[in-house]
Amino acid sequence: MSIFRIIWLGQLFYLIGISMTSFALNISVFRQTGSATQFALLMLTCTIPPIIISPVAGTLVDKWDRRMTMIIAHIIIGVLTLSLLIIATIGQIEIWQIYLINIFASIIGTFSNPAYKAAITSLVPPEDLSRASGMVQLSIGIQQIVGPLIAGAILDVIHLEGILTIDFLGLLIALTTLISVKFGEKIHQTEENNYQPSISFLWHVLWRDVTDGWTYLIKCPGLTSLVIILIVYQFSIGFVTVLFYPLALSLTTPSELGKIVFLSGISMILGSLLMSIWKYQWQNLITTILIAMSLSGMAIAIGGSRPSLLQMYIGTILFFFNTPFINGMIQILFQTRVAENLQGRVFALTGAISSAAIPLASIIAAPLSDYVFEPLMGFDGNWSKALIGQLIGTGPGRGTGLLFVIVGCFITTTAIIASQHPKIRQLELAE
């Protein structure tokens, strides 16, 4: 556990640096273009490449030394960060340069992230997996609140070049921790899974290994059912992700929105801390996941049900408090139910499948809100005088609020139905 803590601390500095750079680049792009479309494209450059590359990356991670995979990935990210810093120092960064570097960085991240998750199994004894998963979720929560908070406070003082310098220093700290310890050696492969670096491997063995993750899931119906539930959940969360800022800004100011985001990060940290110190009973994994999903759905519905800033605070805080339990317990479940030599490709495959649901939901959610629900719930909309209009209110943002209520109720209902599914229930009894 001590080696894991060292690696975790290094990754925390790395994540904070990335978060600061991401925030600064988002602001820079919006200031340069003033275009929401360009802003959305920036997000897609970070989300689409991992969806495509993750299954292949997971296969390779299972065959490579996981420590060396992380070291090489960090070195490449460092080169990209340094390149962006040089460009920013000698002149103004062009939008296409940010897009290109984002694409390369997100591809490299698809190798580093599964290697980190899979290495935890060899770093931490089984009885400490819940604590380790809680710490991972804690680092994500810290990243989400500390990175933007620091970057927002100092961006206009030290500019993008200063943010990139801090990011690079954080990466050096993470790289130093990885080099200073030993862990995550390549898992023993059977002769069937060994390969030679040839064209034949690239076109045949690699594809076969990519399908190994899917085949493993298919052979375990409970895991397959859980992945389906996860996809449905992530698709629903995609609606919330793309519409949260418009809904919040229909109720309050950007300054108040910043406070909501800050408190949501604090809430996520508290949830992560509770999970990391919890003396967990293994047979309750599924129950915990589904209860947390149900509460998340209720939180989304609360946030959208009335034009109330207080309810927005309550819903957001409750939602992010439950997030570590969903993500962390799912991670533990796969770590304890999937063979260690297959964990990299299974993590990558499930990550790619569930992540693909979010961009798809984003494409659907925005026009659905703008052209269907908002007109219906406007002051003169068809539903403004109906019971639903009297319950949740009418005017700007109320169509989006209604969509939040629908999505929240759908998530809660899905979790309740899943709790009665026998194949999912069997996962609680599996060793």
Poorly predicted residue ranges:
187-199
The CATH class label of the largest domain is: Mainly Alpha
Which overall shape is indicated by the principal axes computed on the Cα atoms? Answer: globular
Largest sheet geometry: none
Order of helices and strands: HHHHHHHHHHHHHH
Strand segment count: 0
**What is the domain total for the residues?**
2
H/I helix tally: 14
Beta-strand share of residues: under 5%
CATH topology descriptor of the largest domain:
Growth Hormone, Chain: A
Structural class: mainly alpha
- What is the typical, i.e. mean, pLDDT? 80
The appropriate CATH architecture of the largest domain is Up-down Bundle
| Rg over alpha carbons | 22 Å
What is the terminal separation in angstroms? 22 Å
Q: What portion of residues is helical? A: over 70%
Question: What would you note in describing this structure?
Answer:
- It is a single chain.
- It is built from 14 helices and no strands.
- It has 431 residues and is mainly alpha-helical.
- It folds into 2 domains: 1-184, MFS general substrate transporter like domains (Growth Hormone, Chain: A, Up-down Bundle), CATH 1.20.1250.20; 207-431, Growth Hormone, Chain: A (Up-down Bundle).
- Helix 3 (66-90) packs antiparallel against helix 4 and helix 11 crosses helix 13 (398-419).
- The two termini are 22 Å apart.
- Residues 187-199 have low confidence and may be disordered.
- InterPro entries: MFS, MFS_dom, MFS_trans_sf.
- Keywords: Cell membrane, Membrane, Transmembrane, Transmembrane helix, Transport.
